[in-house]
Design goal:
464 residues, alpha+beta, 2,3-Dihydroxybiphenyl 1,2-Dioxygenase, domain 1, 2 domains, 11 strands, 48% helix, globular, binds 2-oxoadipic acid, binds nickel (II) ion, HGLS, oxidoreductase, YdcJ_bac-like, dioxygenase, iron
Length: 464
């Protein structure tokens, strides 16, 4: 088949993201309510804060905002992870970053599947935080074997999905009809199955070890456990949730409120209690809490220097609090956080001068008008000073391990604290995946470099 008949992976991803949103709205109606709140809030921010709208117009994020969301799944075996990686590759999603959650008492390690080029991200920024269960961290050998044998029996992909993945790999793409079929088939892997694959007693055993183990092992597939829209004002959402009947978690994860948002702020609402039929029951007699809702606000991607500062300030706030942030200490935690982050410049110009964040650079009309003048400025600083080049923060496309741990915990219930030591094992994760994960910082640096090159070219300069 000629390659021009193939649908671009970015379009397949956009279709898949929309289909997932539709499915999750049906499965978890509160997600639909949350989408309405996010959309109202975003409209209000865009209307009331023209500088926010302006910044999003420069980067093109304004066009992707309404369809921007991430999801999360947890798989049980290396084979499942490797195949999910191939499924995501059909949609142009690659594994980026390694997250160790064991140190936070969750027996998984994870990556984010997402598009990596700014043009692809512009078409669809859909990302999926994907965790692999680490049975090797469970010290109860009998339970470990039980879990492994249950997982070995399930097939989380439909035969047609597998065939279409192979076809895509063999031919280099999918045509429109096959792409549509692929989206429908892939959805099955992510949907909720009320029939468990285990007996009520087995479920209880798995659950008693760790609620997350039951969630991964006891069902037919890795149901999507949340889908997260992007808001422009997470504090407004957090305040607005109760009035819509959505109970938020106690604290917003990530940095404190700022004029210039950095990285990622997240809040979520508690998991639903869902009816489950165990394999020794004819009808739904049990229940399981798995799925929840989450909201995110994204800001500037930080350089290694900025990230180190972020990590240091976050640690200092948590140390000063002396306990895990929760309902009872939420107010104190937020003020400690704001206090610490006084040390993090809150002005884009200063953040750039101090090398704390990544940026995208754009030629301005004035710059373009002067591109052939002999006396025009030629260095980046002079071009910015003369208004020939505009800069905007490069948006963070990834996740944060401490925040992710907080999201896991709020969903698992605070009683589920376990200790797995600190067991990062990126090599084992990559071996299971059958590929290495990309370095997110290198991706941001490349994106920034491409924007400088494009600027130089547009302004008729040899380089910047
Ligand atoms: C994933 C939790 C992490 C995030 O946004 O940080 C996450 C999970 O609960 O499976 O989604
Ligand atoms: Ni999430």
């Amino acid at each position: 088949m000629p390659a021009q008949d193939f649908v671009s992976p970015d379009r397949i991803r956009a279709q898949f993201s929309a289909a997932m949103s539709l499915m999750y709205k049906q499965e978890v109606p509160l997600y639909g309510t949350l989408l309405e709140l996010v959309s109202e809030t975003n409209q209000q921010v865009l209307a009331e804060r023209p500088q926010v709208a302006e910044a999003l117009r420069w980067t093109g994020e304004i066009e992707r905002l309404d369809q921007e969301r991430h999801g999360a799944i947890r798989v049980g075996t290396a084979q499942e992870l490797a195949t999910i990686g191939r499924l995501f590759a059909v949609m142009g999603m690659q594994p980026v970053g390694y997250y160790d959650l064991s140190s936070a008492g969750v027996p998984v390690h994870s990556t984010a599947f997402r598009a990596v080029h700014e043009q692809a991200l512009h078409i669809s920024p859909f990302r999926v935080f994907t965790s692999l269960l680490r049975l090797e961290l469970i010290d109860n050998l009998a339970l470990r074997e039980l879990a492994a044998s249950i997982l070995a029996q399930r097939q989380i992909f439909t035969p047609r999905a597998l065939a279409l993945i192979e076809q895509c790999e063999a031919h280099g793409g999918l045509n429109a009809a096959d792409a549509e079929a692929f989206v429908n088939e892939a959805l099955h892997t992510f949907r909720w199955h009320p029939q468990a694959t285990v007996t009520a007693a087995q479920y209880q055993q798995l659950h008693d070890q760790h609620r997350l183990i039951a969630d991964v092992v006891a069902f037919k597939g890795p149901h999507i456990n949340h889908l997260t829209p992007r808001t422009l004002d997470i504090d407004a959402i957090q305040r607005g949730m109760p009035a819509k009947g959505i109970p938020p978690k106690a604290v917003i994860e990530g940095p404190p409120p700022r004029k210039q948002p950095i990285l990622l702020r997240q809040t979520s609402f508690k998991a639903l209690e869902e009816q489950v039929a165990f394999s020794d029951q004819a009808s739904a007699g049990g229940s399981h809490t798995a799925r929840f809702g989450e909201i995110e606000q994204r800001g500037a991607a930080l350089t290694p220097k900025g990230r180190q500062l972020y990590d240091r300030l976050l640690d200092a706030a948590r140390d000063a609090l002396g306990e895990v942030p929760a309902q009872a200490n939420a107010g104190r935690y937020m003020s400690l956080l704001s206090e610490q982050f006084q040390a993090f410049a809150d002005d884009l110009g200063e953040m750039r001068e101090q090398g704390l964040a990544y940026f995208r650079y754009f030629p301005t009309e004035r710059g373009l008008a002067a591109r052939d003048e002999a006396a025009r400025p030629v260095t980046l600083e002079a071009l910015i000073g003369a208004g020939h080049v505009h800069f905007a923060a490069l948006v963070y496309e990834d996740f944060l391990p401490v925040s992710a741990a907080g999201i896991f915990q709020s969903n698992l219930g605070d009683e589920a604290q376990s200790d797995y030591g600190s067991n990062a094992n990126r090599a084992a994760f990559e071996q299971a995946l059958g590929a290495s994960v990309q370095d997110e910082l290198a991706l941001y640096a490349e994106s920034e470099r491409r924007s400088l090159q494009a600027c130089a070219q547009a302004l008729n300069l040899p380089g910047l």
